[in-house]
Structures are given as structure tokens and as C-alpha cells.
């Protein structure tokens, strides 16, 4: 059952990990970049066996159910729950979420 | 009085209907069992006081002639289902003290049917794991033991452990790649993942939306049918909910399988399969034959690509779904010097290693330059897997396979190698990718005395055939073993 673990052809480097972490909004310490790259390459190398499959002319599967997206009337069906919405906020004030400044 | 925790759900519902005991008595017996089982770490949040209130209300309803499908039955809810007024964690620190102001559709259906909720069950963080070791609330321990603590499987480890240890009559669970069926196999319980779209995903914390599906873990096939009948049903609040009636699945249990064509996929006989599991599978084939089914060899040629395709699709969807945890509107917030640093610190502290790993894989396979090579290709392989099953249904009505490639393993053994851990789902993940129903039935013990399950897979929307075949398998296997109560 042990499947072969190969180095991926397009493996990630420490520099790539830094970029992926930034896109993911995760903080990675500098000394962890290399170990994480190795970790990800172990998984990506295993995933690369997908290249063996003949997918010529095959449509990508984007939904697990065989049906069109349902439509509904454009009516208000819910709302007026400000206090409920704010109930779990880490910080709120006077009916608003309080967030760090994002524009100077 | 007999030990009420030893009853099946079906037996307990009958007992209450005959007035042999009340919901309060039944619930108290299970609360006592829960309190004596803290070593298993099956629950994250206990709701014992609430359970007794619900039991009293249930007894009153019954006295006035109102009896729901789950009337007065003490059950557990996986802590991935939002429960109004009861903390919901998804097994993660990032949700902090999140206490939903609404109820998931699945648990709301069960409440409306008279359920008593004992508490919220432990799970792998965001349901990402096959051993329940990624939970921020510590691993769940399997009641089955061999010299050392074993994992209950995952991600629905708390659900499986609690049902196997008789802490509740049944439990909700969810299955994205095998998270209902593999833990059921590891704990000697029954677990069914229905057709994608049968159970509403509304109010269930999302992992990979095109694969996530709720289902029950129970003591018997019939109990799992009763639970699924309550959990399932159309819900306009989930755009992928299937608008179809919920059949009387419990009536399918016990019907003859004479003439049913059972497919045996040769690709599931993988290299390195333990002899015990191959032998049990062979035995299962003999049992189905003896029950009157016709055995048909089939081929599902893309089976070996299912798991790698899953580990592109599921992390991709997860990285997108988990973007919502930004520390602004709910859950944990760790303040940084600016908005970006606040996001990063919150998510780094709030998510565990496996969740961060999958977010990064998902982000990578969706990023510019890699999307076609990984994500688009995986979606096309997924189509191939669906086609494999469509071809198989031309010659068979259901498919019989092992549920998992091993019995329960020791806590700590596989955490260091993610790919080895992912291989646990090798037999279950195909049905998630194809959206098909699959059930695990306890069928025997291995040489160490640990339970093993067999899986029945059916056509989309044909749970009736799955239940019929599963009940026949259960009947033939006569699995009655229970773990020794070492944890009390």
C-alpha cells in the first residue's frame, strides 16, 4: 500500500512557500520555509501521478449533483438581525464591527 | 432494569412507545455513561442539563400523543453542525467561543423529530484528518484497544467512539473523503454517507463544499436508516440540496437481496492489502452469494487516481472556504500592527498544522500558472471516476469493497507522514468524488481482535438498495462484539 513518493517535477522552493503563505494570509517563520517546502513537495510529488491520466476531451466536473442551479424569486426572505450578526464579533461598538484601520 | 445504554436506537424507541421507560430515564443512563467516559475525550461540549430538559419535554409530548421519529432518543451531534445557543468549534481554536444564533438544517430536522442532544462530539479540525488527532481539543480514543491507545479514525472520531462505547444511541457525522465510513470501520459501528445533496449543508461548517455530506453513525444498519430519514430532506437554503422525497429506508432493511447484482472491483485489491482484510472481503462475497445475490466482477480503472485528485480538489475548496476566518466578524482575533498582520497572526494561531498545510496546498493548486496542471486536471480526472461508476452500473446494482485498508492504529503512529495518513481513505474517497451513497458495516475482527468494516456503494439516490444490501451483510456477519469497558 505504500505508494512511491517522488520529488515533484515542478517542486516548490522556500521562496514559493513564502509567496503561498502570503496569499493564504498565514505567517511562516523564516526557518520553517524550507521544511514546509519539503513537506508540500512530498504531497505534490504524489499528486503528480494525475499526469498519467488521459483527459483528452474530458469535461471538468464542477458539481457533484446533476442539476441546474436553482432560481428563486428576488424577494427579501430574511434580515433585521443586526444583534444576532454582531453577537460573536471579537470587537463591536454601537451596532458596528470594529476592525483595524485599513485606509490611511 | 436492564442497562438502557446497551439498547439500539430502534429498540429504545420501541421501549419508550411501550412505556417500558421514559426519555428522562434513558437520557439519564446515557449522561451517566458519558460522565464515566471522559478518558475517551469523545465530546468537546457536554449539554447534559439541556438534554434532561429536552427529555422532560419529550416525555410530556409523548403523553399528549405527539411522537416524532426520534422522540426522546439521546444522541450526539458532531461539533461541525451549528447548534443554536451551544458553542460550536469545528475542532478548531479559530472559532473561539463561537456560539451560533441559528441551528443547522440537519440538527433542526432532528430536533423537530424529538431528539435529545447530549453534547457536541469531537472531530479532526475542520474535519481534516483520518485519526481525530488534528483536533485542537485533543485526540479521541477508540474504545477498542490493543495494549495501547488506538485512534477511532476520523474525522468523525468522536461520533464513532461515542456510539461504540454506548455513550449515545447514535450520532451525526460528516464525510468529505471517508470521515463517516472509516471511523465506523475502526470502531465496529455502522456509518452511511448518503448521495451528495440528500442532507442540507446549511449551517454545517464547510470544508470542501462539492464533497461534504452529512450522515449518521449508529449501532445497526436499521438505526442508521432511521437517523438518515430524519437528517435528510430538501432545503431551499442549500443550492445543492436535492428536491426529492425521503423514502422509508428502514423498510428496506431486511428485504431480500435475491437477484441483486453485486459488483466486485478488481482495482480495490491493492498491493500490500492486509490478509485479514482480503479474507473478510472474500467472506463478504460468500455471504452475499449465500443470501441470493449475484456476484459480478467489475472494473473501476481510475481508482488509483481518486485520492490524488481528491487532494487537489478538497484543499482547493478548503482554502477558499476557510478564507472567511479573518478574525473580523466572529471567532478568534490576534491583534497585529496593521490589518494584514492581524489576519496573518489570527490565522496562524487559530489554525493547526494540518489545516494550514491544506490551505497552502489549495492556494498553490489554484494559483496562476498551476491551475490548469493541478486543479483543472483533477476536475477532469473526477469526471473519469464518475464515468467508471456509470459503466459499472450497466452490469451491477451495488458494489462491495473493504471500507479501509487497515484496522485502527495507535495514537501518534501516522501523524508525521501526511501521505500515509491520506491513504486511509483510498476505498472511501471515490464515492465522495462521484457523489454516490456508501455505507460501512462491521463485518468481523482482525487477528488482534479489532473491528473491520465492509463497504456497500450504490447508485446516486439509490440508498434503498444500499440499505438492503447492508442489512443482508449485517445479518450474515452477525457482528456482536463489543469493546471491553476499560475506560470506566
Which characteristics define this entry?
heterodimer; A: 104 residues; mainly alpha; 29% helix; 4% strand; disordered N terminus; B: 488 residues; alpha/beta; Amidase signature (AS) enzymes; eight-stranded mixed sheet; 37% helix; globular
What does this structure look like?
- The complex is a heterodimer of chains A (104) and B (488).
- With 104 residues, chain A is mainly alpha-helical.
- Chain A has helices at residues 14-23, 33-47, 82-86; strands at 92-93, 96-97.
- Mean pLDDT of chain A is 89; it is low at 1-5.
- Chain A is built from three helices and two strands, in the order αααββ.
- In chain A, strands 1-2 form a two-stranded antiparallel sheet.
- Chain B has a domain at 4-260 and 396-477: Amidase signature (AS) domain (Amidase signature (AS) enzymes, Alpha-Beta Complex).
- Chain B contains 16 helices and eleven strands.
- Chain B has helices spanning 9-17, 23-35, 48-63, 105-112, 157-164, 181-187, 221-231, 249-252, 275-290, 306-321, 339-350, 353-365, 371-392, 418-422, 429-434, 463-477; strands at residues 43-46, 74-78, 116-121, 170-175, 190-193, 213-218, 261-265, 294-298, 398-402, 438-445, 451-458.
- Classes of the chains: A mainly alpha (104), B alpha/beta (488).
- Chains A and B meet through α1 and α2 of A and α10, α11, α12, α13 and α14 of B.
Strand order of the largest sheet of chain B: 4-6-5-10-11-9-7-8
Poorly predicted segments of chain A: 1-5
Please report which band the strand proportion of chain A falls in: under 5%, 5-15%, 15-25%, 25-35%, 35-45% or over 45%. Answer: under 5%
Q: CATH topology of the domain at 4-260 and 396-477 in chain B, which one?
A: Amidase signature (AS) enzymes
| CATH-derived architecture of the domain at 4-260 and 396-477 in chain B | Alpha-Beta Complex
Amino acid at each position: 500500500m505504500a505508494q512511491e513518493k517522488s520529488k515533484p517535477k515542478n517542486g516548490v522552493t522556500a521562496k514559493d512557500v513564502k509567496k503561498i503563505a502570503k496569499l493564504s494570509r498565514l505567517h511562516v517563520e523564516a526557518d520553517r520555509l524550507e521544511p514546509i517546502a519539503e513537506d508540500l513537495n512530498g504531497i505534490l510529488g504524489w499528486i503528480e501521478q494525475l499526469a498519467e491520466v488521459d483527459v483528452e476531451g474530458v469535461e471538468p466536473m464542477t458539481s457533484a449533483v446533476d442539476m441546474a442551479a436553482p432560481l428563486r424569486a428576488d424577494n427579501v426572505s430574511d434580515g433585521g438581525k443586526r444583534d444576532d450578526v454582531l453577537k460573536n464579533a471579537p470587537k463591536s461598538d454601537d451596532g458596528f464591527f470594529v476592525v483595524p484601520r485599513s485606509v490611511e | 432494569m436492564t442497562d438502557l445504554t446497551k439498547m439500539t436506537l430502534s429498540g429504545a424507541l420501541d421501549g419508550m412507545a411501550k412505556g417500558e421507560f421514559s426519555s428522562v430515564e434513558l437520557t439519564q443512563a446515557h449522561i451517566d455513561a458519558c460522565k464515566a467516559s471522559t478518558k475517551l475525550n469523545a465530546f468537546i461540549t457536554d449539554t447534559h442539563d439541556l438534554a434532561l430538559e429536552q427529555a422532560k419535554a419529550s416525555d410530556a409530548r409523548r403523553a399528549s400523543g405527539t411522537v416524532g421519529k426520534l422522540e426522546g432518543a439521546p444522541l450526539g451531534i458532531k461539533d461541525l453542525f451549528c447548534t443554536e445557543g451551544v458553542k460550536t468549534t469545528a475542532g478548531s481554536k479559530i472559532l473561539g467561543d463561537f456560539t451560533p444564533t441559528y441551528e443547522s438544517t440537519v440538527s433542526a430536522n432532528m430536533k423537530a423529530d424529538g431528539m435529545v442532544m447530549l453534547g457536541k462530539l469531537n472531530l479532526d479540525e475542520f474535519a481534516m484528518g483520518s485519526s481525530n488527532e488534528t483536533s485542537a481539543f485533543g485526540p479521541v480514543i477508540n474504545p477498542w484497544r490493543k495494549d495501547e491507545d488506538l485512534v477511532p479514525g476520523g474525522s468523525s472520531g468522536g461520533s464513532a467512539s461515542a456510539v461504540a462505547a454506548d455513550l449515545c444511541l447514535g450520532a451525526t457525522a460528516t464525510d468529505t473523503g471517508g470521515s463517516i465510513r472509516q471511523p465506523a470501520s475502526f470502531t465496529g459501528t455502522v456509518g452511511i454517507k448518503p448521495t451528495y445533496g440528500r442532507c442540507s449543508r446549511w449551517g454545517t461548517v464547510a470544508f470542501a463544499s462539492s464533497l461534504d455530506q452529512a450522515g449518521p453513525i449508529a449501532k445497526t444498519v436499521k438505526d442508521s436508516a432511521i437517523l438518515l430519514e430524519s437528517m435528510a430532506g430538501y432545503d431551499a437554503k442549500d443550492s445543492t440540496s436535492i428536491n426529492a422525497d425521503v423514502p422509508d429506508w428502514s423498510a428496506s432493511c431486511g428485504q431480500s437481496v435475491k437477484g441483486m447484482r453485486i459488483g466486485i472491483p478488481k482495482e480495490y485489491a491493492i498491493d500490500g492489502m492486509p490478509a485479514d482484510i482480503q479474507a473478510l472481503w472474500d467472506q463478504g462475497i460468500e455471504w452475499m452469494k449465500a443470501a441470493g445475490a449475484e456476484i459480478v466482477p467489475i472494473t473501476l480503472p481510475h481508482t488509483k487516481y481518486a485520492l490524488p485528485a481528491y487532494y487537489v480538489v478538497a484543499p482547493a475548496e478548503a482554502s477558499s472556504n476557510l478564507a472567511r476566518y479573518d478574525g473580523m466578524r466572529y471567532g478568534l482575533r490576534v491583534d497585529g500592527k496593521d490589518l494584514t498582520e492581524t489576519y496573518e497572526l489570527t490565522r496562524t494561531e487559530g489554525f493547526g498544522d494540518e489545516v494550514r498545510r491544506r490551505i497552502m496546498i489549495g492556494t498553490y493548486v489554484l494559483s496562476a500558472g498551476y491551475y490548469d496542471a493541478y486543479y483543472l486536471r483533477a476536475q477532469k480526472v473526477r469526471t473519469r471516476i464518475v464515468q467508471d461508476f456509470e459503466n459499472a452500473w450497466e452490469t451491477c446494482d451495488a458494489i462491495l469493497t473493504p471500507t479501509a485498508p487497515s484496522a485502527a492504529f495507535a495514537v501518534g503512529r501516522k501523524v508525521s507522514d501526511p501521505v500515509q495518513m491520506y491513504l486511509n481513505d483510498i476505498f472511501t474517497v471515490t464515492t465522495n468524488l462521484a457523489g454516490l451513497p456508501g455505507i460501512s458495516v462491521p463485518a468481523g475482527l482482525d487477528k488482534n481482535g479489532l473491528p473491520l468494516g465492509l463497504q456497500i456503494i450504490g447508485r446516486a439516490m439509490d440508498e434503498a438498495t444500499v440499505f438492503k444490501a447492508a442489512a443482508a451483510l449485517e445479518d450474515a456477519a452477525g457482528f456482536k462484539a463489543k469493546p471491553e469497558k476499560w475506560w470506566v
